[in-house]
Amino acid sequence: MVEEKKYEVWGSKRSRAFRVLWLLEEMGLSYTHHHVDFSKKEHKSGPFLKKTPYGKVPVLGVDGHYIFESGAIIEFLAIQHREKEMAPPIENFEDYGRYLQWNFFALTELEQPLWLKAKHSFALPEEYRVKEIEKAAFYEFSKAIGVIERELNGKEYLLGEKFYACDLLVGSVLNWARGFDFLDETYPNSFDYITRLIKRDAFLKVKDSK
Ligand SMILES: N[C@@H](CCC(=O)N[C@@H](CS)C(=O)NCC(=O)O)C(=O)O
Q1: Which of 2-11, 51-60, 165-174, 180-189 has the lowest mean pLDDT?
Q2: Rounded Cα gap, residues 54 and 82, in angstroms
Q3: How confident is the model at residue 210 (pLDDT cuts 50, 70, 90)?
Q4: Which of 124, 156, 170, 187 gets the most CB atoms within 10 Å of its CB?
Q5: For 18-40, what is the mean pLDDT?
Q6: Rounded to the nearest whole angstrom, what is the distance from the C-alpha of residue 105 to the centroid of ligand 1?
Q7: Gap from CA of 17 to ligand 1 centroid (Å)
């Protein structure tokens, strides 16, 4: 178990770094946040590429070591600080399995259609963008959100009564979907869920920070 570690997070809160900052706030861990200015290509600069060869955010730093990939960072923090109860105990076969399942589902099934839309709207160089792909992205997202919608029926959180990091990961993707007009009251359980999650103190603390 990690005690009194001082974490550093690189990445704008408008990027996937938000989910890492949100988790650190939920856990009450101290950290330093470094903005990375894409317009100045700071993410492709020498010092930044020493932290991550991929030149993308978020990056978590601790004790001179660096981790990239938001999902890995979230799992790392949740397990290193398991006393914060952001993941079910790993000995709890059923809950820990379902927790991991939703983390992976968030990143591979829910997020990818949104990322596909984003890449073909603004992230890729113009010559690689295929505008028509949005229809396929929406279709794929609809299938994935249907699973979340059914899972949340009569439940506060994905695993029941308790908020875990899988809610944070799924929530951060659903918040993105809301911004893309991919998620509205057509999916009432998911819409209520994300409306609840974005009112959490830790979420608001990051959102309202400078
Ligand atoms: N799978 C990665 C994706 C990281 C990623 O694409 N980050 C974006 C910001 S949200 C980025 O750094 N983009 C800059 C670039 O692609 O050059 C993760 O979840 O951390």
Answers
A1: 2-11
A2: 29
A3: confident
A4: 170
A5: 97
A6: 18
A7: 9
189 burial type by CB count under 10 A (0-12 exposed, 13-18 middle, 19+ buried): middle
Percentage of the residues of the chain whose pLDDT score is greater than 90: 96
Q: Give the mean model confidence (pLDDT) for residues 4-18.
A: 94
CA-to-CA separations, 188 to 142, 145, 150, 162, in angstroms, rounded: 13, 11, 10, 20
Ligand 1: distance of its center to the CA of 155 in Å? Answer: 31
4 pLDDT band, cuts 50/70/90, is confident
Question: ω into residue 58 within 30 of 0, thus cis?
Answer: yes
What is the fold, at CATH topology level, of the domain defined by 93-200? Glutathione S-transferase Yfyf (Class Pi); Chain A, domain 2 (1.20.1050)
What pLDDT shows up at residue 94? 96
Architecture of domain 7-86: 3-Layer(aba) Sandwich (3.40)
Region of residue 164 (phi > 0: left; psi between -120 and 50: alpha; otherwise: beta): beta
Token pair of 194, please? 């994300």
Pocket test of ligand 1: the residue of 40, 57, 117 to mutate, having most ligand atoms within 8 Å of its CB, is: 57
Ligand 1 pocket check for 15: Cβ under 6 Å: yes
